[in-house]
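Researcher: Structure prediction, please.
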Amino acid sequence: MARAARAILLGLLLAGLPSAGGDAREPAPADWNPEGIRWVGFERGMARLKRTGRPGLLVFYTDWCPHCRDYSRVFHDRDVVELSRRFVMMRVDRDESGALNELYGERGTYVPRTLFLTPQRSVDWSAHGANRKYPHFLDTDSPEELVGVMRRFLARQAASSTDAQSPKPAR
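Model: Predicted structure follows.
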């Protein structure tokens, strides 16, 4: 009896330990990281784009979507949080904003859907992930794809801003 109790106790203790090579970290909460990311609604975000001249990142999601829940955890990543400070970060519940969903659904109305907006408030459709069928559905399990798209978008914005400010050669 004592041997069986010790075996059960040992099993319970070992079950709580990470396996060799495993990840001991707890998954990030599925809450979009409201403490680390300055999320705003669509109307406020569009006004902020115009006022600040910063680009925007617009995420369409739903509360019932498991992929959206997984994607929300990506926004706890340190690089995503740091890069988000260079964007106006907007989230729109697709089910509560049908008209916006249709307006920005030119390439599909799936969720989660991440769109990048220029400071002039137009969508840059070239800023997307690797998924050919759903190009604005970014990796929901890892931040790398989002970080890469954010960095490339910011680099293009900086280059186009520099090009616009460069003096044109005289003819």
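Model: The chain has one domain: 27-161.
Researcher: Thanks, that helps.
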